[in-house]
Design brief:
Layout lengths: L2 H20 L2 H8 L29 E4 L5 E6 L6 H11 L6 E6 L3 E2 L5 E2 L10 H21 L9 E6 L1 H11 L7 E5 L15 E7 L8 H13 L2 E7 L8 H14 L2
Parallel strand pairs: 2-3, 2-6, 6-7, 7-8, 8-9
Antiparallel strand pairs: 1-3, 4-5
Amino acid sequence: MPSNLAAFFSLFVIFIGAICVAASPSVVMAADRGPRIVSSKVDPAAKPLQMVQAESISRSTASRVGMRGDHLVILFHGIRGRGAVMGALGNSWQATLPDTVFVAPDAPFAHKSGGRQWFAVDDQIMRPERIDAARRSFDRVVSEIVKREGFEGALDRVAFVGVSQGAIMALDGVASGRWKVGALATFAGLLPLPPTSSSTRTVILMMHGAEDKTIPPAATTVASGQLRSAGFKVTSKIYPGVGHTISSEEAMDAVIFLRDGLK
């Protein structure tokens, strides 16, 4: 990997590591161990969005919702989280997207807290081999799901949904051109590297809380601009009063976006 790319990514990881250390545990946990609802709004299916505490599951398993589907939505959790947490979000969307299969895998690497992570930030160093490892492991997880669910050759009917670290990996997968999926929705994300590809068929929704102290909302503003300049169709929205979490308003906007964006 070019040295300037590695240097850019190193700065990014130092930034993320620093703000994660500075943030209070309760704020970080809101998005990374499970999205907590911060308002009383409900999803379009008129069911309360109930997030559940992730159970201990092996790295080879994933939370799966839906028995059959014309579309596939893969949900990526944040650092220290588990797939079961995002699986609960998919479950709340099932009535609105009845012909959709939701799969929420565990991240491949263990975190010292007992949860999982897509890449390590504890020593605030991102060497080129770590970048490669994060991408290879992410791609392996996605490839296995796409193949198992029968969507090989039909990526236009696949969507990524990610929060925090999961959003970072999903954004990198799309912006690098490795995954030309039909739609991408992110909560509290950040684009780690400038886009090197474009896909006019990939529609993107980026959401961020205005009060996020872990990954500032400016990260979404900058990323959405970079993606638009690269040729992606991007909608971005900042939510007043929301921190590093998934609010019920964001969840509602995301499921409507998926309903309208996946054809």
